[in-house]
Amino acid sequence: MTQISDILNFNKNFVEKKKYEAYLTSRFPDKKMIIITCMDTRLVELLPKAMNFKNGDVKIIKNAGAIISQPFGSVMRSVMVALYELDADEVVVVGHYECGMASLNADKMINSIKERGVSEEVLSTLENSGIKLTKWLRGFDNVEEGVIQTVELIKRHPLLPPNIPVHGMIIDPATGALELVSDGYVENKATL
C-alpha cells in the first residue's frame, strides 16, 4: 500500500464519520491576520498552538524560510488576496531558528539536481535565459535578517494598503518561544 492509498483510506473514514465538522469555519480569518512562515515540519502544529490560533483564525502562507524574494511573486499575491479579498488587516512574518534556508548551499543543491537526473543542458539553458541558479537557490545568513528583509519588502510594496501593521517574529522550533524582531504597531505610529 502506498502513502497516497493510506491518505485516501483515512480520508474516506474521516468524511464518512463527519470528523470535518470540528473544523468548519468561513474562508475569512477571524483574527484578520496573515502569517507567513516556513514550511518546516516542526512548525505544522507547533506554530498555531504557540500563537494561540485555531482553525479559521488566520491565513497561513508557508514556503522555504518564510522569505518573500519576489515582490510580484505568488507569495506576495497571496498576501494581497488576503488583504483585499479576505478581510485580513495585519501581517506577521515568522521565521525560526535552525532553519534549513540558513545553511542552504546553492552549489550542493545544483549537484543534487544533477544527481537526480536534470541534465546539464537544462541547467545551461536556464543560466543562458538569465536565471542565476546560485542566486535563486541561496538562503540567508541570519534568520533575523531574513525576517526583517521580508518585513521590509512587504512594507515597501506599492500595493500594500496604508497603515497595515507588518510584524516580524522568530519562533524556537523546539519550545515554541516567540521573539518579536519587528513591531508593526510601533513602526506605524512612527509614520503617522
Explain what this protein looks like in three dimensions.
The protein has about 190 residues and is of the alpha/beta class. The chain has 2 domains: about 15-100 and about 140-190, Carbonic anhydrase (Beta-carbonic Anhydrase, Chain A, 3-Layer(aba) Sandwich); about 105-140, no CATH class. About 40% of the residues lie in helices and about 15% in strands. The protein is built from 8 helices and 5 strands, in the order αβαβαβααααββα. The protein has helices at about 5-15, 45-50, 75-85, 105-115, 120-130, 135, 145-155, 185-190, and strands at about 35-40, 60-65, 90-95, 165-170, 180. It has a 5-stranded mixed sheet, with helices on both faces. β1, α2 and β2 form a beta-alpha-beta unit. It is globular and about 50 Å long. The N and C termini lie far apart (about 60 Å).
List the helices and strands and how they pair.
Elements: H1 3-16, E1 33-38, H2 43-50, E2 58-63, H3 74-85, E3 90-96, H4 106-115, H5 120-128, H6 133-136, H7 143-155, E4 166-171, E5 178-182, H8 184-191
Parallel strand pairs: 1-2, 1-3, 3-4
Antiparallel strand pairs: 4-5
Domain unit count = 2
The first-to-last residue Cα distance is: 60 Å
What is the topology, as strand order, of the major beta sheet?
Answer: 2-1-3-4-5
Helix coverage percent of residues? Answer: 40-55%
Q: CATH fold name of the largest domain, please?
A: Beta-carbonic Anhydrase, Chain A
Order of helices and strands, N to C? HEHEHEHHHHEEH
Low-confidence stretches: none
- Principal-axes geometry comes out as globular
- Output the CATH homologous superfamily of the largest domain: Carbonic anhydrase
Annotation, overall tally of beta strands: 5
- CATH C-level label of the largest domain: Alpha Beta
Mean pLDDT: 94
User: How many whole angstroms does the radius of gyration measure?
Assistant: 19 Å
Number of helices: 8
The biggest beta sheet reads: 5 strands, mixed
- Secondary structural class: alpha/beta
Strand content: 15-25%
CATH architecture of the largest domain: 3-Layer(aba) Sandwich
